[in-house]
Amino acid sequence: MPVNLTRNAIATINGGDVNSKPLVQVVDIKLIGNSQERYRFLLSDSEFTQHAMLATQLNEQVRTGRVKKGSIIQLIDYICSTVQNRRIIVVLNMETIIPEYEIIGNPKVLTDSDSATNKPMPNDNLEPSVRSSNNRYSAQVPANNVQSFLPTIQPAYQPPPNYKIQGPIMKNEAPARIIPIAALNPYQGRWAIKARVTAKGDLRRYNNARGDGKVFSFDLLDSDGGEIRVTCFNAVVDCFYDVIEVGKVYLISKGSLKPAKKNFNHLKNEWEIFLESNSTVELCPNEDGSIPRQQFSFRPISEIESAENNSILDVIGIVITVNPSVPILRKNGMETQRRILNLKDASGKSVELTLWGDFCNKEGQKLQEMVDSGFFPVLAVKAGKVNDFNGKSIGTISSTQLFIDPDCPEAQGLRDWFERGGRNTASISISKEIMPGGSKNEIRKTLSQIKDEGLGRSDKPDWVTARATVVFIKTDNFCYTACPLMIGDRQCNKKVTQLGNKRWLCDRCNQEFEECDYRYLLQVQIQDHTGLTWVTAFQESGEEILGCSAKEMYLLKYELQDDTRFGEIVRSRLFHQYLFRLKIKEELYGDEQRVKITVVKVDKVNYSAESRYLLDLITKNLPIKNF
């Protein structure tokens, strides 16, 4: 039995229709995209065809075969957007009417000339249709042998002929006037902005009480210097994620404005745009030279010293050192990369910049190769985050952008200063003092300074390095029995108890096992030329101090009961000098607040490097006078 598709449906959708719910045929399906499963349809109304993108929430219909080549479908929710100067129908919701059917007619691809000659017909010029009892239009029935379908079809919508089509346009509504980003406010009924995409965030997925979702954002800059962030959620992500490209200029309209969340949005705008299913994003193919490619608000490094913690700012400087990239284990157990480099500028100050994640292997690797070859590049940091941990430093976040030797006046001025003698100008670091031979920057303190400066009494712990000598080690309860089981990629390490059957039980893992682990919990007294203090050393630090494992010491003391050998090992480790990396934090013991000092790392003193460190201190604090 023949099937009548909705006449002129493709041209009507291109004309801005979003309401007619037409009956069309899928004449081709193609799987596209590497990182995300996406399906592209070729839709036909029997006369013309048009490419369409299927929203990802509808992918299951293709995977299960409910929609295939030849299927007759009814479009329920859809929009038509411009992607790389081509019109694409984005299908947000649909119904399958006939799962499999032979290709109807000999349709051809719709062109601009076809759109002009095949304008959508007014409602009263439609071919005779059968009205249902609820006054909605159903599929056409020109003859008794033509199959009829239950899904109803709304009459095609004809856009006003006097207005230029710029995406989905509501009935009797002219294109909105382009206004500056700075003039946007939530009380405007209709608006449009023309702006360049300066940054595009990754597609992120989330889960909350309302279920799973996805979101991405991008930043815009217009010719007046106005900036604003645009955010898309769920189905709207499917419409625009593949459309948006950094550096391109777009005409955007029909979005809602809401207050910007400053915890996540660093732009100087109190509003943020949220795109919706009827929003339009049209690529402007002709380059607009009046819109800059990027906008910076650089702060001299000397001003960062007084910047508020966690503030977001732009900085530019000469890269003077680049450390290797090292793996770091996050609190959630995931591993990431970290790379530390140093910048200096004409203000006489230098600052530490920490690169995280992909920045380490992309820009970070390129910067290291340049510095290793003897060339010191200019680096512009857009949206770096200030950290006040033991001095001020800058770190990258997800919205950070790095520009190596950018083409801007500030970069040229900095390069001229560096070449005219700036490379030999001494600069003072506003970050942590550099530990000779260390893999990261440390700050030095004497033991008396820990108490005198009240370290550890703030909300966050203090981290310092002290050179001190071990003078006493408590031997009571020097270790504990620990759970050896693995939780993910990490050992449990919780204290275990021995059962009557000589097996061990971990309350956390709720499991029994034959053998337990032994881990240090050393109480050590250390001393330097200013005083002494007690510190706690755990497993790795304890092994470095005592020179053997906790299990060996446990067996000597409790199994073999060889107190003589046990005592010899402890006494042999006294009066050795180390560099102690310390974590200092006030904790509650019963009703009393006490400052707890934990040994994070122990290193033997490198006397050559230590001598250079002391000489540097002398140079800084006792400048040579000119006679």
What does this structure look like?
This protein has 627 residues and is α+β, with helices and mostly antiparallel strands. Helix content is 16%, strand content 37%. It has 13 helices and 32 strands. Strands 1-2-3-5-4 form a five-stranded mixed β-barrel. Strands 7-9-10-12-11 form a five-stranded mixed barrel. Strands 13-15-16-18-17 form a five-stranded mixed β-barrel. A hairpin with a 5-residue loop joins β14 and β15 (335-344). The longest helix has 15 residues, at 607-621. The radius of gyration is 34 Å and the shape is globular. The model is unreliable at 121-172 and 433-441 (pLDDT under 50).
Keywords:
single chain; 627 residues; alpha+beta; five-stranded mixed β-barrel; 13 helices; 37% strand
Q: What is the overall silhouette? A: globular
CA(first)-CA(last) distance: 109 Å
Number of DSSP-assigned strands: 32
Number of helices: 13
Summarize the structure.
This protein is α+β, with helices and mostly antiparallel strands and 627 residues long. 16% of the residues lie in helices and 37% in strands.
